[in-house]
Amino acid sequence: MSQPTTSPLAPEAFPALPAIDGVTLRIARARYKQWDRCDLTFVTLEPGTAAAGVLTRSKCPSPEVEWCRAALPAGTARALVVNAGNSNAFTGHRGRAAVEAVAARAAGHLGCRPSDIFVASTGVIGVPLPIDKAEAGLDAAFAAEPCDWLAAAETIMTTDTFAKAATARAVVDGRTVNIVGIIKGSGMIAPDMATMLGFIFTDAAIDPALLHAMLGDANRRSFSCITVDSDTSTSDTVLAFATGKAGNAPLTAPDDAGADAFAAALESVCLELAHLVVRDGEGASKFIEIGVTGAASDESAHRIALSIANSPLVKTAIAGEDANWGRVVMAVGKAGEPAERDRLAIRFGATQVARNGLAVDGYDEAPVTAHLKGKAIEIGVDLGLGSGRATVWTCDLTHGYIAINADYRS
User: Fold this and answer.
1) How far apart are CA 35 and CA 16, in angstroms?
2) Is 199 in contact with 23 (CB distance < 8 Å)?
3) CA separation for the pair 15, 56 (Å, rounded)
4) Of 385, 404, 17, 14, nearest in space to 201 by CA
5) Where are the alpha helices (DSSP H) in 280-325?
6) What is the tens place of the pLDDT at every residue in 287-333?
7) How far apart are CA 244 and CA 255, in angstroms?
8) Positive or negative CA dihedral for 112, 130, 67, 148?
9) What is the bridge-based pairing of β-strands 175-184 and 76-86?
10) Quick count: other Cβ atoms within 10 Å of Cβ 221?
């Protein structure tokens, strides 16, 4: 499969990212596929690093997801291994053996417990991760020189067209703490607890339980509010690691001084990473924000917004720059949530197109058409029922999505 051209929604440049004390990045070629690039990332973490994560709720998870789920309660980490090109999902005992071998190899190198090694893989489903290639790739990574964030972000990619990263900082206990995140994801994107493979690193000192709670809160307002194609991956993983090297008094409770600032910075990183995934949606040409207000509850608003975002008819209309707001009405109606036709109002950009179940008097489609010609599209829906609200982000559906996925395994 040829690599797609860079998404038209990609940022102009990869961001400048600070080093995170206690985090060392290395990459290598395990040659999981016939490609001329690195495909194994090995991240070492200083002893005492706290770990937290959110994982897919798919009933067909990869062995890597099961491994991370079992390791997270301990709240500690010494390394992360990420394989690109092979998801190792739906591979039975051979897949489990591969994860165990990867963790054992890395643990032996670092002199730690295998349960302190976190493993994630991404790529084709149904092909066991070749242990010989994984171990050879790890050995090469052990001997490699440290690399920068860009190299690591590129190495975890599969069908992504650009490397994705974000950063933020906060003041905690008079110390500036840094947060850096990298992520991969382009297709098979519909969040259910987490999404894609995302890895967040900070030098803050924070209790693992508090880090886990903050990551869960951030996830609900970021990764769980995006969708590309309504398909939830078997391998979705977001992990956060805190080395404690910033020297702040450890955060242990939500009301500690600086905890709010850290939580806000963490959410900022998660939201930026989530938006970058949508901007790299397979075949995407439009970045779409859907805001729902006036719903019976926030949860109801979220489900209605996702119904709109996941509708192929809505997504293709936007791809074609067609001001067909009737498709939004359809998506609201099929969501299975409280809605009353004659209270419904719909907005495209700044233009109100429908109100009280009817097209607005004197509706002029010209400004809506102009709005749809841009790359950033806004759809607003008001149910007129209550105070529930939600915002989700998606992209349009183009021929490019079919082209990428029709030959994905080749």
Assistant:
1) 28
2) no
3) 28
4) 17
5) 298-309, 312-319
6) 999 999 999 999 999 999 999 999 999 999 999 999 899 999 999 99
7) 19
8) positive
9) unpaired
10) 14
pTM: 0.93
Please say whether the beta carbons of 167 and 183 come within 8 A.
no
- Residue 240 near residue 197, CB atoms below 8 Å: no
DSSP 154: H
Instruction: Convert the pLDDT of each residue in 325-346 to its tens digit.
Output: 999 999 999 999 999 999 999 9
Cα(311)–Cα(325) distance, integer angstroms: 12
Tokens matching residue 161: 């067209």
Show the DSSP H helices in 13-157 as ranges: 63-71, 92-110, 131-143, 149-155
Phi, psi (degrees; rounded to nearest 5) at 84: -120, 135
Structure tokens at 232: 């939830």
Burial (Cβ within 10 Å: 0-12, 13-18, ≥19) of residue 342: exposed
3-state secondary structure of 180: strand
Catalytic residues: 195
CB atoms closer than 10 angstroms to residue 255: 7
Question: 291 forms bridges with which residues in the sheet?
Answer: 380, 391
Q: Report the C-alpha gap between 98 and 100 in whole angstroms.
A: 5
DSSP state of 64: H
